[in-house]
Amino acid sequence: MNCLMTAWHRHEGELRAWLRGRLGNTHDTEDMVQELFLKALRQDRKFCELDNARAWLFEVARNALADRLRLKKEEVELPDDLVAESAEPDAVDSLAACLPRALAELQEEDREAITLCDLEGLNQEDYARLKGLSLPGAKSRVQRARKRLREHLTLACQVRFDAAGKVCCFVPRTPQG
């Protein structure tokens, strides 16, 4: 971990300035710097084995920036008077309680793919690098894991989906204690 902290302190200022120049916003810059530090931290010992920590940090920063800009581009400003569909808060809470148990019942590979990519926000390119997979291989693994989770939720929580693929109803299942 000392190699991570040494490299981080050596390159953080330059990285921060580079991001600030592209994001133009101190708040977004700080968020991105924190995300990058966490990604480096997740590398654990692999980070110390990198030939060029600076190059790795900037590559991950460029990819994260591209992801952020792509998402921002897809955002659409909604009018303030738009009425939101109301979901039963108890139903949402019950489904949220079922998800951890269903996720825990998946195979380790599926659980890890969903946890890292969908719950912790690791992009699939970084996931591929982390697992030593090609990008198409990583994308396939994540898609298969999502499919198996959906199938498991259908059985374990009796989740049903409407024609648009959204959850329409389910039978709550209490978490194992």
How would you describe this structure in keywords?
177 residues; mainly alpha; Rna Polymerase Sigma Factor, Chain: A; Arc Repressor Mutant, subunit A; two-stranded antiparallel sheet; globular
Question: What can you see in these coordinates?
Answer:
With 177 residues, the protein is mainly α. The chain folds into 2 domains: 2-74, Rna Polymerase Sigma Factor, Chain: A; 89-169, Winged helix-like DNA-binding domain superfamily/Winged helix DNA-binding domain (Arc Repressor Mutant, subunit A). Helices cover 69% and strands 3% of the residues. It contains 8 helices and 2 strands; from the N terminus they run ααααααααββ. The chain has helices at 2-23, 26-42, 45-48, 53-74, 89-104, 108-119, 124-131, 135-156; strands spanning 160-161, 167-169. Strands 1-2 form a two-stranded antiparallel sheet. β1 and β2 (167-169) form a beta hairpin. α1 (2-23) packs parallel to α4 (53-74), α5 (89-104) packs across α8 and α7 packs across α8. It is globular. 15% of the residues are buried. The mean pLDDT is 80.
- Major sheet details: 2 strands, antiparallel
Mean pLDDT: 80
CATH architecture assignment of the largest domain: Orthogonal Bundle
Q: Please state roughly what percent of the residues sit in beta strands, choosing from under 5%, 5-15%, 15-25%, 25-35%, 35-45% or over 45%.
A: under 5%
Helix-strand string: HHHHHHHHEE
Low-pLDDT windows of residues:
none
Number of DSSP strand runs: 2
Q: What gap, in angstroms, lies between the N and C termini?
A: 35 Å
CATH class of the largest domain, anyone? Mainly Alpha
Helix content: 55-70%
CATH topology of the largest domain: Arc Repressor Mutant, subunit A
CATH superfamily of the largest domain: Winged helix-like DNA-binding domain superfamily/Winged helix DNA-binding domain
Give the overall shape, derived from the CA principal axes.
globular
Can you count the helices? 8
Task: Provide the domain count.
Answer: 2
* Lateral strand order in the biggest sheet: 1-2
Radius of gyration from the CA trace? 20 Å
Q: Helix- and strand-based class?
A: mainly alpha
